[in-house]
Amino acid sequence: MTQMTGKRLSRIDVMRGIAILLVVLGHSVGTLKDPVNRFVLSFHMPLFFFISGMVAKSGGSDGAVLPFGKYLLKKMRVLLIPQGTLFLLDTAFDIALEHKAVTAGLILENLFGWFLWVLFYVSIVFWLLDRTGLLKKRWISLLIALIPAVLTQIFPIKTVVHIETLPMALLFYLAGHYIRPAVEKDAPPRAKFRSIWVAALPIIVIISRANSPVTMYSNTYGDLVLFFAGAALGIWCVYEISAGLGDNAVLRWFGVNSVIVYIFHARMLNVLHGVGKAIFPALEKANYSYPAYFYYFLIVCVLFVPIVYISNHWVAFLFGKKNIRRKKGEAK
User: Fold this and answer.
1) d(Cα 332, Cα 254) in Å, to the nearest integer?
2) What are phi and psi of 65, to 5 degrees?
3) What confidence tens digit (pLDDT) does each residue in 283-329 have?
4) Which residues, 6+ apart, have CB-to-CB distance to 162 below 8 Å?
5) Coil, strand, or helix at residue 65?
């Protein structure tokens, strides 16, 4: 399989950095009715699956498809171990700070947090498509994802393991995988539209207001035509922004450490909101309104610096990574 160059990987890390910051911003708002949150929700999770698809591969360095057992263990390490860490963090928070009783419902809810599980499912289906040769037949593969994605909207189902979200997530994952060659070549058709992406922003705003709030974790997208239009335009805008920014160190740092940010951000915001309510009891509702939520967002972003450093250097295994050790100024 074709490997992306370091420059392209950096660009994708910048895209991922923008995506995870949008997640943090959306959760800082705390309400689906806020226009900013509706704008973010309209495309940010499809963007994550699209980015994952851009770098997806089921083969080793020789390009051959990895044996399923080896591939499965790899995906379990990088996705399910972090999910286990998130489960422990959420459960400890619920018991210690929110004084919730330990019930089967609480355990299942925290154990099957949706995003990493769905990304795991998608990765397995991607391997199966590659192994059977269907991945090369892009229209068939896209239909395999699109048809059940539409059916789950016509006949909605809800499961504790979020399997109903798999088809839609797979659709954007495959879209990212199939568009990768054009990205690698910086294809002329894309270059022609490079300077007009800004015009898409107000369109996304209009779509996000016209459509009901998109909540991918509950497999709810409102009007599918509006959803696909908003998601596609949002992904395009983020790609063009990342292309214009180049190798932005800050955004790339957030992108590289997006799993750690994802695991910690929600509970960090919960604590900050609690502190804000205690200090300013008369402004409880304003905690989730502009400009208060923007300050929470900035504070959390700053706090990630020591948290990510500690996580990477001493407990990286909890996030499916290897510890970073430094000796004489070099990473080992």
Assistant:
1) 21
2) -65, 130
3) 666 777 777 889 999 999 999 999 999 999 999 999 998 877 654 44
4) 112, 114, 117, 118, 217, 219
5) strand
